[in-house]
Amino acid sequence: MVDRLAGMKAEFTPQLEEIKAMARQDVAVVRERLADGRAMVSDYVVREPVKALGIALCIGVVLGWLMKRP
Fold it and tell me: pLDDT under 70 in the chain at which residues?
């Protein structure tokens, strides 16, 4: 039984390493996109502060209404 488990571990270790590498790459892409999105939002708030405040107010009202509902 132990030999069988050791064989399975040896069989799946390369696949596991490949999956880990793909996950790290995906995380890097997500972090980059989040940074880009954060920069876009910051730029929009600087260019259009009144619209940004109105959008934030509307989102807050909707979220508050949804949380208040039973």
Answer: none
| Angle (nearest 5°) at CA 14 between 33 and 4 | 140
> Which amino acid, residue 27?
V
pLDDT digit string (tens) for 19-31? Answer: 999 999 999 999 9
| CB 19, CB 12: distance < 8 Å | no
Q: How many angstroms separate the CA atoms of 21 and 31, rounded?
A: 15
Dihedral pair phi/psi, residue 48, rounded to 5°:
-130, 70
pLDDT for the residue numbered 45: 95
Contact (Cβ atoms closer than 8 angstroms) between residue 52 and residue 44: yes
**Site of tokens 């979220």:** 63
How far apart are the C-alpha atoms of 50 and 47, rounded to whole Å? 9
* Alpha-carbon span 35 to 62, nearest angstrom: 26
